């Protein structure tokens, strides 16, 4: 299977590669997770998990590319050094919708990597019939809220410290 690899340029002009996750990426996902700050881990997983377990890493890399898809970003020099991940997992109750999740290494925040990952994932989701992403994040996570709003986040609902909403995939967000 073609892994959908493509080169993208970040706001700085720096190139990165984005490709579908592979089962062999499990150990690298664990390494990348361990390098995330506690705040980033908490904002992404909503828990202070100190490490990604072997079973979690296996789950995150055992994708079928239809109901569970994930893309990783890496530098052109080393395709095993993961700097970002975006994934969707379809809801069994409504296969036209999928949960969206994004993680970017702390040192790559603010460079447009998450935007690029969401765009690649959006295109793949549309190819396999996903019509809408649902997302949930911490209400104080302004960078992710800005990212998702620029991607078309609507229907925002605040419940305690959490915000949820959806992105209709037929509609493109404004350009960067």
TrEMBL record:
For this protein, the record's Gene3D superfamilies field holds: 3.40.630.30
A Pfam family annotated for this chain is Acetyltransf_3
**Domain named N-acetyltransferase: residues:** 19-174
Example GO molecular function = acyltransferase activity, transferring groups other than amino-acyl groups
Record key words, sorted: Acyltransferase, Transferase
Give the residue spans that cross the bilayer.
none
Coiled-coil ranges per the record?
none
Recorded superkingdom: Bacteria
Protein name, as recorded: Acetyltransferase
Species whose genome carries this gene: Nocardioides alpinus
